[in-house]
Amino acid sequence: MILSTVEMHTGGEPTRIVVDGWPRLEGRTLLDKRREAKARFDGLRRGLMLEPRGHDGMYGALLVEPDHPQADLAVLFMHNEGYSTMCGHATIALTRWAVESGRVKRQPGETTVRLQCPCGLVVARVAADGFVRFESVPSFVHVLDRIAPTTTWGPVAVDIAYGGAFYAFLAADSIGLDLHRTPMRLLADAGEEIARAVAGAIPIVHPEEPELGFLYGTILTDGGDGAGGVPSRNVCIFAGRQVDRSPTGSGVSARLALQLARRRAKPGEERLFESCTGAHFTGRVLREARVGPRKAAVVEVGGLAHFTGESRFRFDDSDPLREGFSLGL
């Protein structure tokens, strides 16, 4: 078996777009296809994400047939542990690829790409220079100032918000860490421990889709709000100890829902967010909305992805490591 991919990155965070070779998924809905991919073809995910073809920080996007009537494309997002419900950096990469490859016909000015994600329909606009702005699914606050017990820091206070996936947020300095000076391995350790503590202590339920009701990761922030053109740094740790090299698009959506709830942002105000690589995403609340009984916000996130190459990966049945491996460092 040979899988063909296009390789891209957004702020240093990779997106491996699977364009050919994956067996056809028969599920009726995108969530059905997500379950089918996990049940029948998870060895292909592991083989593409993990060594020797990938690494623990690899991220992927599998193109599948959409079932949403307005969608141009549908995607399953994947990483070292499994399948995400939403991914902003991969949305930016995938929609730029869709336009520049001709999969979606380029229009004068900005080209609109409607992408069906497991969390819902995401509408992206791709400029002539490749810059992407996307309007994500409505984001909302789940809880504020909830306590989770940790072994290392004792009780820690977190906010939990949804931006296509649920994240636990806290300022890094609240537990004595610094996003500019603390070694990344220690930030990853902290994110993993806090995610496990929060998942065990605070129930998470999506008001409309039970399959989306789980904690995806921890986002450590510098405590800023990204106003006035001064970027606020955050580091997202997900899938165990995987560190997002980008500013995390779904995290930006969730951060703005939190800022709106705490009256630190208003609709229309642009915010600037920075990752550990120094890459920037813009974000602004477009309008208020609702998700079931919850107040929510529709957020627009902007960023730029770059092409790095194309690959053809062989899966040899005689290879004992064909489904990949991780050293768990």
Q: Can you walk through the features of this model?
A:
- This protein is α+β, with helices and mostly antiparallel strands.
- The protein has two domains: 2-131 and 307-314, Roll (Diaminopimelate Epimerase, Chain A, domain 1); 140-303, Diaminopimelate Epimerase, Chain A, domain 1 (Roll), CATH 3.10.310.10.
- The protein is 19% helix and 39% strand.
- The protein is built from five helices and 18 strands.
- It has an 18-stranded mixed β-sheet that branches.
- A hairpin with a 5-residue loop joins β7 and β8.
- The chain is globular and about 50 Å long.
- The mean pLDDT is 95.
Q: What is the CATH topology assignment of the largest domain?
A: Diaminopimelate Epimerase, Chain A, domain 1
Largest sheet: 18 strands, mixed
> What proportion strand?
35-45%
CATH level-1 class of the largest domain? Alpha Beta
CATH architecture label name of the largest domain: Roll
Q: Provide mean pLDDT, rounded.
A: 95
CATH-assigned homologous superfamily of the largest domain = Diaminopimelate Epimerase, Chain A, domain 1
Task: Round the Cα radius of gyration to an integer and report it.
Answer: 19 Å
Count of extended strands: 18
Order of helices and strands: EEHHEEEHEEEEEEHEEEHEEEE
The level of helicity is 10-25%
Which structural category do the helix and sheet elements fall into?
Answer: alpha+beta
Shape category: globular
- Structural domain count: 2
| Low-confidence region ranges | none
| Discrete helix count | 5
Straight-line N-to-C gap: 29 Å
